[in-house]
Amino acid sequence: KRYGAYAADGTIENFFVGAIFPSLLHQDPRFFPKTQGSFFNRAEYAVTRIVVTRGDSGHSQFNFSEVFGSAIASGISTYSYHPHPGYHPGQAAPYVESDRTLTNTASVWGSQVGYDTITLVVKEFWPDIRRKLKKEPH
Q1: Using an 8 Å Cβ cutoff, are 124 and 42 in contact?
Q2: Is the pLDDT reported for residue 88 higher than 70?
């Protein structure tokens, strides 16, 4: 059940962050790697893409799609199907109304945004890592 809940979290979040909000807000949800610069410069760039994105015009803007899309997805999961922290398979009542709180929603939201941040850093450096593993020239 937990695996199903986390799979649903990711699906709902991807739908809001990658399709619904970008379409409504005219934002580009794609990540464009920097590929040049120092490690720290590139890592900083990747991390900031959580809050900065390109609009359809090509200009940088606040990433409403990521921030609000993942927040809404977190609210949907926390208040509808997420089992509470003390849930054990086979237990009669996996959902406790008192666990449907803003604190739990914020925790799910933070996890989703953190995971998305790590994903962007990996996307930034993956071409370099792959090249090193295959020992390809630049």
Answers
A1: yes
A2: no
